[in-house]
Amino acid sequence: MLDILPALLPVIALIACGYAAGHWHWVSEAGLKDISKLAFNLLAPALLFRTLGKVDLSALDLSPVIMYHALTAAWLLVWVAVYGLTPRGCIRALGGTYSNAVMIGIPLVSLAYGPQGLVYILTLVSVHALIILTLATVLFELALAREARQAAEGPAPSLGETLGRAVKSAVMHPVSMPAFLGLLFAQTGWHLPELIDKPMDWLGRAFAPLALIMVGIQLQHVLGKGLPWRVATTGNGSTVRWDEVAHMVMLKNLLHPLLILVCGWLLALPPLALTVMVVTACMPVGANSYLFATRYQVGQAEVSVSLSISVVMALFTVPALMGLQHWLVG
Question: What is the model's pTM?
Answer without folding.
Answer: 0.72
